[in-house]
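Notes continue from the previous slide.

Worked example: a multi-chain complex. Inputs as given:
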Amino acid sequence: MKKSQGDFIELTIAYVIIFLILREWLIPVMELTNTSLNHLFLVFIGLSLVLSLFQIHPLLSGLVKFGYITWFIVFVYSESPFISGQTLPFLMHELKWNMTKILSGDFGQVSDSFRTVLFLVLIWMLIYLIHHWITVRKNIIYFFALTVFFIATLDTFSDYDGKVAIVKVIVLGLIMTGLLFVKRLWLQTDAPSNEIGKWKLAIPMIVSVMLVSSVAFFLPKTGSIWADPVPFIKGVAGQGNFGTGAKKVGYSEDDSRLGGPFQGDNTLIFTATSRDRHYWRIDTKDTYTSKGWILSEGNFGKNVYQTNTPIQTSLQVGSPEKERQIQIDIASPMPFLLQTYGMISVSAQDSPLFIQDERTEKIAIEQQNGESKLLSNYTISYSEAEYSMKQLQMSEPSSLEKLDTSFNRFLQLPNTLPQRVVDLANDITKDKASVYDQIKAVEKYFSSHGFRYDKKEVAIPAEGQDYADQFLFDTKVGYCDNFSTSMVVLLRSAGIPARWVKGFAPGEPGQITNGLQEYQITNDNAHSWVEAYVPGTGWMEFEPTIGFAGNENIDYDIEQDTPQQEQELQPEKKQEQPKKEEQEPKKETSSSTSYSFDLGWTWMKKFTYVWIALGILMILGGIALFMQRKTWIPKMQVRAFRKKEADWTNFDASYQVLTKQLSRIGLRRKDGETLRAFAERVDEALETGAMQKLTAVYEQHIYGKDKQEVDLVKLKESWENLINRTIS
Amino acid sequence: MNSQIQVVLENIEKVMIGKREVAELSIVALLARGHVLLEDVPGVGKTMMVRALAKSFDAQFKRIQFTPDLLPSDVVGVSIYNPKTLEFEFRPGPIMGDIILADEINRTSPKTQSALLEGMEEASVTIDGKTLTINQPFFVMATQNPIEHEGTYPLPEAQLDRFLLKIKMGYPSRGQEVEILRRAEHGKPIEKIEAVLTVAQLNELQELVQGVFVKDSVKNYMVELATQTRESSYVYLGVSPRATIALMKASQAYAFIKGRSYVTPDDVQYLVPFVFSHRLVLKPEARYDNVTAEEIIERIIAKTPVPTKRFAEQ
């Protein structure tokens, strides 16, 4: 009696825990479906558990539950009270309606009441299952794992916040699993039932679970190491949208929240015909918010330019003798101008106006009447600026302190910027003699510190996390926005004015006519890079993104031009344009080994799915082979032994093979068991006499002194028969 | 099964119903030149067993009924003054027989016990400074009544070591007992037993037993079993190397009876309880936990790995 009472207490505790866990199931469902019937469902769960706990006769318990469901339906879906003349007709009507719909296969048309009934029946089943798990299997781990999975899934894919729920479930689940484990342990050891002993085991377990969980809950945690999977999944599924989800690559206006994966889009934007390769500058941003870029406050004017008149920008222009033209043919018209470095003027038909925003240097195209205009083609006159290395090297870091306040907006940084970013910036720039060298050091930093170009596995910073900080220290995987923003942040941290530039990369080189190269620029070429201010020289563009080549013209006018510097600078000139599908890092400056490694990695990555599929197939194949080992291994061994001669050595070996095979099918010789006893057992199990026959000879072989005359060929036959017997 | 032994066993079975195992073990001891301690209540056929065995081999049978007043000279013999020859004449005691039944050995004084046991061990007796060798076959079957303790002198452990095997007789089953009655109904069955082998043949067989081969791996196995008894937590005193020798000798004899020229671990396992159980001195804990020597040996057998490879791995 005492024992069953103890069992009852245990079961009650188990049921209370189950009730609490089931509550965590119900809450998100109710929250997401906007149902206020939470308590009614909870009552049903409680009712079912109590009925199950007291082991009420199934018929009676079923009747009670059925009654509750009926009352539930009438109470919620019918306006009239339960005990009234309306109840029966209402139920009949509901039943008839739903039965017709189901019979006609019109499942979408069933009424809410019917769905509720189904849901309640589901709970009913679940509780039956749980009862089975607790009392028979004494293992709740499946249910526990399912609950965690359920809440984690809801938390990830819906608005439901399962932060607290998951902690509760983990604590309850661990306690439950632990209690059932203690129970199992007790049953296995056949120890006399001792309630106190059981609790001696259980209570420290509960206490430690509580303690560990609470410590874990209050410990500071790092941000998520991988990206939120939802945008990625949606992106792959083709449900990409601008803003929160996966973005389609291309030029967009809003940069206030950067990050997340990109989906390729090779829509043609424009075609440029030019002698040189150009970066297509559209817009700049100056204020970094720790999540993205916005525009600074303050008053800035607008400059209006006519066609064919020189347009003033903060950038350098080359000598007039080197003036050249670019023909731009727009495929997807935009209401603003594509600028190149060294741009002098723009000519277009219908004499539009070019309105330059002084804040961003973005140039909008407008008609004379002020409405925005979409040009289908225009010509840009430019002369590429040439910089003197000598002059660049003369830009002393101390000169930065003398900059006027107009540069303040290019030195802005959010207050929340982690100190480690600043430390990193100072670390990179500390030993450089000139501002230019400092900038180049920051630019080069990315190519040699484990950074990787990727459009897919790109994280979005979590709340309270800095976009640049996350990329620089945690993820190190990203595309142009990550690299350029991080470089600007680093430069500003080092006190160098810098801004973030948006536009298009040079594009895909096409055919060459009359010495002019045609470039096709698609949405895939949308790009961002950096402009930094070098005292004494002015604003210059820099390209931190791995796999992209910058576009600078530097005069090597200094004698102390070391080979190393040359190596650093020379590749910049190369016409290295990554192909749109595989803008993977191509580190020109890194050593050849890491280059080939990268190449191999790229190749591997290209066929990721093939590799994964192959790997899974191999693992599955391996498992299948392992599971079936008792059939194929002996078959092979029989074949092998057929070829061998019937001598004592082979007889010995074949006997070992036999005992191994027998152990595979569960006939394992115990340590203290003699061969003869084992052989008797085997023969009994396999209904043969062959094992004893073989064993008698083997015994003589291993324990005897002189070999007796034995027909080994015949023995081999019975050995083979026995092996075959183990397979069938 | 060895054909000669088979004949002997069948002969014994004419009078001993359902005691084939005891007969076999007795022959094992006889062939291994050892002695047997039979532990059982009176009247289960101990004497009959020994007499049948003696008769089968055409051997001399002597019986010593041990009593508290028995003297050593009553066992080994005494020199008596012959007034005719004016010399002391030696009158051999019952120990000088071939097959001796030492009945209720624990009833006599330790002095007399040790006279017998010394003779058993050395196969010789010393009287009046003269050492007399006891002729082979020399086989003592001592019995001990485990029930009565009043007025007994239990054999010390060191003395028990002298017995190769300790065998329990046990009661016959109902059917067997009915058969015993049927045979006893008309006269004494023991009278009908005839000799099937001679003493000379027995000596020959004893020689052959010594030639039974024991592989090193099997010897290792025996030593391992003996070592385990010394390491058991319930055992105060494990078995001596003499016991290991006894195990080997007995195994050889058993293998011989079974018609084999080599010893297998099966032989060893079968004999270990009979060879070891009376040589173990258990700790008091064993009695508290209700563990017997047989159970300890059973556990040791179960956990000691049997050699199953041609070349010993141990």
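Summary box: Chain B is about 45% helix and 15% strand. The first helix of chain B runs from residue 3 to 13.
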